[in-house]
Amino acid sequence: MLGVGVVRTSADAELGDRLVAIERGIEAWLDEHRPECVAVERVFSQHNVRTVMGTAQASAVAMLCAARRGLPVALHTPSEVKAAVTGNGRAEKDQVGAMVTRLLRLDAPPKPADAADALALAICHIWRAPAVNRLQQAHAAARAPRIPVRKVTR
Question: Which residues form a coiled coil (predicted)?
Answer without folding.
Answer: none
